[in-house]
Every structure is written in structure tokens, then in C-alpha cells.
């Protein structure tokens, strides 16, 4: 299968690198990482060891493949969609957190499938990605039900020894994952605590409220997700990833933009459409955006000082 991975940072490099064991894979990412992959191949270390040789590009326009997998951060989804729209793909799949598939669907003339992933990845150095935890990839129709293409793609993942399956209940899975991210990511980022703090302790109550709000929005969208299921999913993931720093906590610690819009923004916007109140998600989003605004102002200030210095 010809597969293009758009956004080959941590997750995209891991998934693309693993898929290159059985398929014709092109990574689209940034230099110096892409240059090193072209020169030396991609080294996968940690929970999985492999050395593969995918193609590596920095310009993802005008390409063709059977499947494009989007693994940019959620705030780069529209730019990824614009680039993919200049090429030809039968199927496009997002493995990002948050709800991004509808944006891809709006911009692309391709079948868009939903995906979730529980593998963990960290780009350690140019040309070297660490698999921080094995998991599984699940692919399925965005609106649920059987989709033979989802199974065909999942089978292609399995041919490359990536644990993968297709599912008929992607709407529920997407919202359950959104509930997990809404429950864990904001509280752990803002309180600067490990995921364990959500399993037990004062952050747990906030996490449960956020998860219940997402489940209520899901039901308003016709998706069968109970508050109990959403809360149980948050508690289970917080326990199994107890020592982890959530991705949003890592983004905040590194002074990077967060995925607040695709996680809390998505829940708030869809809630508004259905007259569902999301006060906890709104509070978490407002605090995260306040931090992001401060971060932007600080970097603008730094740039100004730099310019004046010259
Ligand atoms: N890492 C993980 O373990 C997991 C991540 N996820 C989700 O997967 C998504 C990706 O996360 P992660 O891999 O950690 O993020 P990264 O930032 O490591 O990877 C994204 C990469 O895409 C690059 N990129 C963005 N736009 C373009 C473009 N137009 N052309 C070329 N390259 C581009 C970015 O470069 P630059 O930064 O220079 O713009 C970056 O290198 C997120 O939604 C995350 O929540 C889900 C599960 C696990
Ligand atoms: C599942 C969880 C919360 C693990 O930390 C995650 O997806 C993230 O950190 O973004």
C-alpha cells in the first residue's frame, strides 16, 4: 500500500516508520529530521526497535498515495488539509487527538476515516523516534457502521506488525477519547501534575465533570456514551498512565501552543449547537487560552526587544 504520513514528528514518525516495514511510506515533516531520515533511515527505539527507510519530504504538496495519515498537532489540521488537497488520496485518516476529521472532510475530496491510537511516541533526535508505549490503532467510518476500507487499512497496519483493528462504533470511541483528553489534559497541564493526580485527589472531581460534559454533548449528537462510561474511561486511562505527563502538560512546560481548541473548543462548540452547557470545559479552556495569550505576548515582546537590540 502507498501511504503518506503528513506531520512526521513524534507520532507520525513512529507510525510511518513502523508501516515502512511492509509498505511504500512517505513521511512529510521538517528538517533536520527529514534530512536525517533521507540520509540514514529512521531509527525506532524504546518499546519497539526497528530501522526503516521511508521517503522523507518537507513539502507535502502534489503527492499521491492510497492512504494519507494526518499526524500534525490539531492546530495545523487546516494547513495539512490544504496541502493534501493539492494531491490525490483515496482515503485520509486522522490519528490526532481532539475532533479534527470534520475539518479534513470539509477540505478534501477523499474518503475520511476516523482513527484513534494508544501508541506513545517522542521524537528524540533527528532521525530517531522513541516508542514510549505500545498500544493499538483503531480505524472506522466517521459516522459509524461497517466500512470495508477501514478493515483494508487496518489489515495493512497489521501486515507491518502494528496492532490495529477496524471498529463500527467510531463516534462513541471518538467522544470517549475526547472525554479522556478533556478530563486529563487540562487539569494536569494547569495544575502541573502527573496523570495519577486525576485518578485520586482534588483534580479528579474537575476531570469527572469535564468528562460528563463531553458525554452529554455526545448524547446530544446522537452518540451512545453514558456519563458513567466517560468517567470510567478517564479513571482507567489515568491509572494506566499514572506516571505520564499528559501531552498538554508537556506542551505547557515547553512553552508550546496547546490543543485546547480541538479538545475543549470542540466540546464547547458542539455543546452550543445543542444547547448543552459545558461550564467546566469552558473554565479549563479559558485558563489554557489565558496562558497561551500570555505566552504569545511574551514571545512578541522578546521579538520586539530583539529587533530593538539590532
Ligand atoms: N506523541 C504521541 O505519543 C501521541 C500523539 N497524539 C496526537 O497526535 C498528534 C501529533 O502529536 P505529536 O506527534 O506528538 O506532535 P509533533 O509536534 O511531535 O508532530 C507534528 C509534526 O508535524 C509537523 N508539521 C506540521 N505542519 C507541517 C507541514 N505543513 N509540513 C510538514 N510538517 C508539518 C510539525 O512541525 P512543526 O512543529 O515544526 O510545525 C511536527 O514536527 C496530536 O494531535 C497529538 O495529540 C496521539 C496519541 C499519542
Ligand atoms: C491519554 C493521554 C491523556 C495520556 O497522557 C493523552 O492522550 C495525552 O496526554 O494527550
Radius of gyration: 19 Å
Total number of distinct structural domains: 2
Lateral arrangement of strands in the main beta sheet = 5-2-1-6-7-8-11-12
CATH topology of the largest domain: Rossmann fold
Corresponding CATH architecture of the largest domain? 3-Layer(aba) Sandwich
> How confident overall, as mean pLDDT?
96
CATH secondary-structure class of the largest domain: Alpha Beta
Ions, cofactors and other bound molecules? NADPH dihydro-nicotinamide-adenine-dinucleotide phosphate, ketopantoate
Termini separation comes to: 52 Å
Uncertain runs with pLDDT below 50, 5 residues or more? 306-310
Order of helices and strands: EHEHEEEEHEHEEEEHEHHHHHHH
What's the total helix number?
12
How is the main sheet built?
8 strands, mixed
Strand content: 15-25%
Helicity range: 40-55%
How are the SSEs placed, and which strands pair?
Layout: E1 2-6, H1 10-19, E2 24-28, H2 33-40, E3 42-46, E4 50-52, E5 55-57, E6 64-70, H3 77-84, E7 88-94, H4 101-107, E8 111-117, E9 120-125, E10 128-133, E11 137-141, H5 148-159, E12 164-166, H6 170-191, H7 196-199, H8 203-220, H9 227-240, H10 247-253, H11 260-273, H12 279-309
Parallel strand pairs: 1-2, 1-6, 2-5, 3-10, 6-7, 7-8, 11-12
Antiparallel strand pairs: 3-4, 8-11, 9-10
The structure holds NADPH dihydro-nicotinamide-adenine-dinucleotide phosphate (NDP) and ketopantoate (KPL).
The site of ketopantoate has 11 residues, from α6.
